[in-house]
Putative colanic acid biosynthesis UDP-glucose lipid carrier transferase
Amino acid sequence: MTTFKQGRYSGYLKHIAYIIDLSIINVLAVLYFFKMVEPIKFVFIVSICWVVLSIYSKFYEVYRYSREITIASLLIKQLALFTLLMFAFSGFNHELNIQPLTIIKYSLLVFLLIGLFKFTLYYLLQKYRTVFGGNYRTTAIIGKNKQTMALESFFNKNPEYGYMHKKTFNIKDKDNFSLEACFNFIKRESIDEIYCSISELSNTQMYRVIDFADNNLKILKFLPDNKDIYSKKLKYEYYDYIPILSLRNIPLEDSVNLFLKRTFDILFSSLVIIFLLSWLTPLIAILIKIESKGPIFFKQSRNGFNYKEFDCYKFRSMMPNKDAHLYQATRGDQRITKIGKFIRKTSIDELPQFFNVLFGDMSVVGPRPHMVSHTNMYAKRIDKFMVRHFVKPGITGLAQISGFRGEVETDKDIIGRVKYDIFYIESWSLLLDIKIIFKTFLNAIKGEEKAY
C-alpha cells in the first residue's frame, strides 16, 4: 500500500497574515487617525479594497524560497497603492476634511507595522526550520548536471528555506540508474517534491515521471532549458537565482482562492442547513423509519484531501446490509428501499453532506469522493486517479454534470470522471462552481438516467 504525505501546505499562514494586516489597518484608522469616520463603513470599504489590491499586487505570494528583496518590493508596491486608495477615500468623503499629511503618516505607520510583522514571521519560520527542523519538505532530484548540482547546493546550504534534500539521481550512470529504483526510493523515503532536469530525460521517461508523481500525490517541478516540453500552463518560479517550472498549476493552492471557496462553502452550506435541512430532515426521517428499521443517516469512510479518510454522511436509502461499504448501488438493486429510490433519484440522500462541508471535510463542488476500497482499487488501475485528491472532494462536480455520476460500470466511466476532475482542479473559478451548482439543481429536477 502506497503511503501519502499529508498536510504539506501551510496556507493557514496567509490567512493569519490577512487577519493581522487588516486588524492593523482598521484599528489604527478607527481608534487613532480617523476618529470621525463611520467605523462599519470604513472597515467594510477599506478591507474589500485591501484584498483586491493584494490580489493585484500578489502581496501575499511569499514562499519559503522568496528572498528579502522580493518581500521589500512587495511592501513598497502595496504601500504606494494603499496610499492612493486612502487619498481616493478622502476625496470621496471630503466632508471629513482628512488632511494629506495625516494620510501619509497613517500609511507609513501601517506599513511599518505590517512590514515588521511580515519580516518577523519570515525570519521566525526560517529559524524554526533551521533550529528545530520543522515545516520542511523532503526533495529528490532526477538528473545530475551543473544546474541540478546548483539546486542541490541551494537546498543543502540554505536550511532556513525548509528543504531537506535526500538524493540526486545520475541518469547518465546507466549501470546504476533506473526509474523504477528511483520511484521506489521516493516512496520509501516519503519524498514531497521531485525536481527533474528536462535536458536529461527522454520524452518517454518524462511521461513516466509525470504519471508517477500524479498517481502518488507528489509535487513535480522542472529545471528548464531550451528543450520543448508540453503545451501546458507552466508556473515559473525562482529559487535564489535558479529558474524552476511547475508542471501543474492548481488555483486552489492560492490562499486567496482557497479563502473565497471556503467562504462560499460555509455560506452556501449554512443556508441549505438552515432553510432546507431544518424542516426536511424530520420528514425524511419519518419516511425512512416507517419503511424500515435502522438509522436515519448512513455513514461511510471515504478519501478526501491529501488522501485523508473522513466520515461521509447521507440519508439512508438502503436496507441495513453488511455489503454497503463494499459495493456501489446498481440498477435495480434490491437493497434500495422505496423511499430510498426517490431520494436517490432526486439526490436528496446527498443533502447531509452539507454538514461535511461545514465541518471542512468536503466542498460544495469538487471531485466526488469514493469508498476507501474503491479508491485503493482505482489508484492502482486508473492513471492519474490520485490527482483528484489535491483538492477537497465535493457534493457535486464537473464530472457529475457531464454524465459521469453514479455507478461505475466500466473503466471508461472512471477514466471519464478523472479527466473532468483534473480539468476542474486545473481550471477552478468561483463562477465555474456556481455554474456546476446550477446545472446540478436542473439535473435533480429533470432526473438523470444514472441516478439510482
